[in-house]
Amino acid sequence: MFSILRRWGASSSYQRVPGGPEAQKCSPEKSASFFSKMTYSWFSRIIILGYKKPLEREDLFELNESDSSYVICPVFEKQWRKEVLRNQERQKVKASFHKEAHTRKPSLLCALWNTFKFVLIQVALFKVLADILSFTSPLIMKQMIIFCEHRPDFGWSGYGYALALFVVVFLQTLILQQYQRFNILTSAKIKTAVIGLIYKKALFLSNVSRKKFSTGEIINLMSADAQQLMDLTANLNLLWSAPFQILVAVSLLWQELGPAVLAGVAVLVFVIPINALVATRVKKLKKSQTKNKDKQIKLLNEILHGIKILKLYAWEPSYKKKIIEIREQELEIQKSAGYLAVFSMLTLTCIPFLVSLATFGIYFLLDEGNVLTATKVFTSISLFNILRLPLFDLPTVISAVVQARISLGRLEDFLSSEELLPQNIETNYTGDHAIAFTNASFAWDKTGIPVLKDLNIKIPEGALVAVVGQVGSGKSSVLSAILGEMEKLTGVVQRKGSVAYVSQQAWIQNCILQENILFGSIMQKQFYERVLEACALLPDLEQLPNGDQTEIGERGVNISGGQKHRVSLARAVYSRADIYLLDDPLSAVDVHVGKQLFEKVIGSSGILKNKTRILVTHNLTLLPQMDLIIVMGSGRVAQMGTYQELLSKTKNLANLLQVFSEQEKAHALEQVSVINSRTILKDQILEQNDRPSLDQGKQFSMKKEKIPIGGVKFSIILKYLRAFGWLWVWLSMATYLGQNLVGIGQNLWLSAWAKEAKHVSEFTEWKQIRSNNLNIYGLLGLMQGLFVCSGAYVLTRGSLAASRTLHAQLLDNVLHLPLQFFETNPIGQIINRFTKDMFIIDMRFHYYLRTWVNCTLDVIGTVLVIVGALPLFILGVIPLVFLYFTIQRYYVASSRQIRRLAGASRSPIISHFSETLLGVSTIRAFAHEQRFIQQNKEVVNENLVCFYNNVISNRWLSVRLEFLGNLMVFFAALLAVLAGDSIDSAIVGLSISYALNITQSLNFWVRKACEIETNAVSIERVCEYENMDKEIGIVGRTGAGKSTLSNCLFRILERSGGKIIIDGIDISTIGLHDLRGKLNVIPQDPVLFSGTLQMNLDPLDKYSDSELWEVLELCHLKEFVQSLPRKLLHEISEGGENLSVGQRQLICLARALLRKTKILVLDEATASIDFETDNLVQTTIRKEFSDCTILTIAHRLHSVIDSDRVLVLDSGRIIEFETPRNLICQKGLFFAMLTEAGITQDSGTKK
Hints:
Elements: H1 2-11, H2 34-39, H3 44-52, H4 69-97, H5 108-150, H6 156-202, H7 207-212, H8 215-235, H9 238-257, H10 261-305, H11 307-312, H12 316-366, H13 374-415, E1 433-443, E2 452-460, E3 464-469, H14 475-483, E4 487-495, E5 499-502, H15 513-518, H16 525-534, H17 538-543, H18 561-574, E6 579-583, H19 591-602, E7 612-616, E8 628-633, E9 636-641, H20 643-649, H21 651-661, E10 672-674, E11 680-681, H22 693-697, H23 714-724, H24 726-757, H25 763-815, H26 819-824, H27 827-869, H28 873-918, H29 920-925, H30 929-979, H31 985-1023, H32 1042-1049, E12 1060-1062, E13 1065-1066, H33 1072-1078, E14 1079-1082, E15 1091-1092, H34 1093-1097, H35 1105-1114, H36 1118-1122, E16 1131-1132, H37 1141-1155, E17 1159-1163, H38 1171-1184, E18 1189-1194, E19 1206-1210, E20 1213-1218, H39 1220-1226, H40 1229-1237
Parallel strand pairs: 3-7, 3-8, 5-6, 6-7, 14-17, 17-18
Antiparallel strand pairs: 1-2, 1-4, 8-9, 10-18, 10-19, 11-12, 12-13, 15-16, 19-20
Helix pairs in contact: 1-4, 3-28, 4-5, 4-6, 5-6, 5-9, 5-13, 5-31, 6-8, 6-30, 8-10, 8-13, 8-28, 9-10, 9-13, 10-12, 10-13, 10-27, 12-13, 12-25, 13-24, 13-31, 23-25, 23-31, 24-25, 24-27, 24-31, 25-27, 27-28, 27-31, 28-30, 28-31, 30-31, 35-37, 39-40
């Protein structure tokens, strides 16, 4: 396998994550000596460094080349492509024999096997050797007990046995740790390969597939299902190893107890099918659980992306209730799984006892002369203890297989889903036209209603083309058709040259501004500065804290809407493409800037003058400058031609031009806001100082995820225990203490039984004692079973309580965080807390606590038993315990920080994936899929580096701890030999069998202590938000201050001085929900949630259907909704993607009309709809809100000219505030803006 990966890597160069040379610490593993590799001594420098200081990312060793995502992903993708081709051939063969062949998907399992089979075989060989050695130690112990029973004259053989026992257990340690290292890293490589394939597939999904798989579901495939495959791989060898160990153990027991062992086998045969039934039930529960997790992540994703709307409308309680409902369904399933775990725990703990009880019982019945000697008892007990591990692992691996089957099915469904067909567009076209449609019809779905019909368009190279039409007429769909984003039903589409695309909703990456513009292209300084100047970005760069090196937050939250569009346009211009598709980029900027962008970028004298430009626009005043105008109507080309041709043909177009030419030439150097006189604003509404608001914005930047350092505070564990419930905590402690005491009692009883058998002379007396002993042994087993059941039940109840409490607190804290938090923290960080961190709290943390408590009690009990048998053993234990704690102290300090780095490195994977899914159309348009695939490999590789270091640190610890445990075994054996005749063989058997167990117990004890500390970070992260300030601080934003004004009214931003008074009430004196419930807003960005149209209009279910139809009619949407098959129950896709932006804005308007509050804020509410609809909407607003205070924020001056008063802002300061008529008379800034816009005093101004 390694040679294959190296050969592949030669053709695909190994690229490291960016960073200075000092950051590239190549792993010294390859150059290490054999002994260093086996003991992981080469990793000691990281452990020592981690003890001296908190480790940082650059301190960690890089991956071996063959383990990196840059090598793994291409190899696996190659095998997956081969599997897809093989599957297609199989389907063809089946189809030739059967007319209706069952469609079979390509097997992900086959592709994984073909990729990793050699390393998986290597791992299996290590496991075979480790298993064989595990059975050697009981056989040596048997010889030692025989030696102690007979004490031959030549005593050196005893020392030989003691030394042989030490050598065997030490070799077992080395081989087992090599197995663990290769096994876990191979499972991580499989997860990496699958994540890479999921990401690549997501870039090419068709629209049908995107509807089928929401963003939340795809993220869940990457986080949860890929993890399930990793868990299966880690447990894969147990599928054959567990039966192998059971078979060997039973064979050796046959030698000790003869046919009686078949009774034990019968118990196993009886119990395993019951476990299989339990596993089947768990499979169904897991399937339901996965669906609930998908729902929760999908809803959370939408809530976090639309958090501003939730806060403005005070909808947090409603959506919190929806999340809680899904969560309760999850917890119900978790409770059922927990109760099933009670049975699993019972069988797990009691099977060795039941097997031994049945075996010993039948052993006595088969022959009344059979006697249990120390040799038989303790050899059998050691074998039963070995038997316990595969029996423990078998339910785990069955569960992993069950879950992996579900995950494999989900992944295969996704990976086999439809992709966009490249043949929809002929890109190798060499004709005279840049773009040509011939009788072309398109739909979003192959079986769906055609959205575009019978298109016949030919666009010459270098032409400037306008696409105009009403909302929903198909303007943006034309661009989607050119990009190949739609399904072609009929006809031919031809496109010549490269494409650059500016989407209607600007997509901005979470990186520096320069990288957003360069978008992977090489920096050419002169052209870059020319693009910045043409796109009117130079003034913005002067005000940004680090110029073009300023980091832009997730979704561009720290720049204004207009700036986002200009950055998006600059990105397109810089790409130097042949064809430019511009989806209404001028609607989000004021008229002055829009005019500059057209003249310097898009128009006949602009930077793109020789390029083919297709501009979707509502600005009809630009039409005279177009080479070709396409008028869309109901998905068809209603009219097409030059401006003069259409003017002569179409009376309606001429009328429209006449109306809007007077209103839309304008520019607005500053933004305009209008406020009715019924709202009183003090002069102190915004801070009156000399600094513009943008200067405050310089403090605004995206926050990196905080990585804690040092130990986890005990207060975090206490928080979990409080959520767990103190009653359940103490009951858990009591049941586990009882369980361990009874377990020790069973072994002591067997020891006393074997010892007693030697001193009984009469057969009748022996028969009576045997019967009593067997009864007491059975009673002790029954008591252990009761303790196990009680413990599992109590743990389930407590863990459910903790999960419910911590999730509810997290959700409540997140929804009460200020909007500023969401604008400065990546959504991936928050989702990671609801997914990975809550998964650890739900499923893992209580398990680690339970295991640690059990191990602690087990270790204490073991040491007490051995010291009781061999008092001198205490002299060896004291220095070994000191060494244990020293190793633990060094390890925990390093491991804790490595795990924290690994946790922090997971968030960028989710964030990058979410960002990609949001901008997938832009990525595909620019043909940058391979670059983004490479970026995904980089973020995955970062996580893999941390995981690799964590795995090696665990192996480093295990080798050292197990070596100390091996020394304990050696001391116990040596003391038994030295004791001579002063010690009974039964005591020797008891002490050595316990010593053999202590190695694993101590290893588990230290490991679980570290697991608790490192996984407590998840509790720390979940509780992190509760200590954050829920009050909203002041951070200025770019622009003149109009957004700040509306944010202050809703108390999204709190005032820093003065008062805001509405109807005589200071708004700072009332609750946020009370305030926001009385205000109404139609936002600039139309946010819709997945669900029905009815739910989007009325999420609180307060209004009747007739009221909904009424507002739809007022918003001119009634006809459109009535044409939908399910009308009000029409399913809105995630983010409202199955509606045009204009339709989304009209739905937001309808939502506002339903609320009918006394104050309405219109924040660029009609920027994305055509002028005719805008006029109708403005009329509706004035009629329906005639008795309300309306605040209008708009770039279109005709929208505000008939207002009662006009408020002009500049850099957060009030410049003018008067009636329109008085402002015109004063001939100030407002008058200048009207003059430049060509709006006269007779244009409807109010006095």
